[in-house]
Amino acid sequence: MPKRCRGCDQPLTKDNDSDAHVIPQALGGRLAPRGILCSKCNGVLNDVADLPLVRAFGAWPTLLDVPRQHGKQPSKMVETRKGYNVSLESDGSMMRRDVVYDVAPIPDGHNVVIGAGHMKTARQLIAKAKAAFPQLDVAEAEKHLKVVALPPDDEIKLSVDFSPQAVFGGILTAVWIFLIHTTGRAFLEFDALLKCIKSMQEHGGTFRYFVEELPGLKGPTVRFGHKVIARSVPATGELIVYVEILGVLKVGGLFAKGLPGHELEHVYAYDLAQKAERSSEFTINGALFDVQDWRKAGLGIADAPALRAHFGDVLTSLSEIYYKQRLASVSSADGEEPQSVKPAT
């Protein structure tokens, strides 16, 4: 019997089966089981849940060069504190993208200032100046083109949006796919999942934010990676879930209640720095896990100031480790000082 799509119930074939990423691959997700969703239904979840989750991280995946399963992180346009528009590349480089074409009269004629993010645009601007001032020597003008570094004391402005509206739908989807992958059960029908995603995005839900890792989780420190965990509380039958993305966003809480007899424990961990799965290195201390009040564990949206401070600290730490060290290694190999602009969270 062929497997059937958990969304539309159509048989899955080699033509319509798809990789159901637990965590979006744009955020470095590797766990992508097949045999769960057809490409059409997978696209529906991508639109309503995964894309908002990816957008919530803004330009940070490019800044950190988060390894993707396919392809590289795209370049991102960002702005600096001093008002420059900058193209941020996954290799850590930055290039100013402001277009400048200023003409000012001077005693001997006109002073033309041209600036552009790449040579093609610069040459187009020189051609524009040539049309206005036929006496301009194009070849001589091109000789004067040079790379101008960004001010070393400037900062690029980066932000994240980890509000329930932005991330809870993606977290719920990650849990839903993970549970199908590990248990064979959906726990929610597809239509109910879509309704639940909409409700959580509009009103929040039972999920909470964690500053530390999931209570009771034991294992090595993985600062730059993902975790997905599902465990039931034997005494109550409550199913508790937890999703950690890039070591920054940590969300979890009550997923289902009143399921006595359905004991389960599944832990998935992936280390992006080492590009290795490390699930087997983690265990859960049941004595500590089971006594938690999961409706109060972690922080809620009312704790916004503490959450903002926490996310700012974590992102700054990641940029220090995975961005600045990468620039330093590139510069040492080239024998030059790195040109960088500090991330400002």
Would you mind describing this structure in some detail?
Helix 1 packs across helix 5 (164-183) and helix 5 runs antiparallel to helix 6. The longest helix is centred in the C-terminal third of the chain and has 31 residues, at 304-334. Among the domains are: 25-57 and 161-295, no CATH class; 94-154, no CATH class. The protein has eight helices and 15 strands. With 345 residues, it is α+β, with helices and mostly antiparallel strands. The radius of gyration is 25 Å and the shape is elongated. Strand 12 and strand 13 form a beta hairpin. It has helices at residues 39-56, 60-63, 119-132, 138-143, 164-183, 190-203, 286-289, 304-334; strands spanning 76-80, 85-88, 94-96, 100-106, 109-115, 155-157, 207-209, 217-218, 225-232, 239-245, 249-256, 265-271, 276-277, 283-284, 342-344. The strands form four sheets. The protein has a six-stranded antiparallel sheet with strand order 7-11-10-9-12-13, with helices on one face. A five-stranded mixed sheet has the order 3-2-1-6-15, with no helix packed on it. The N and C termini lie far apart (52 Å). The protein is 32% helix and 21% strand.
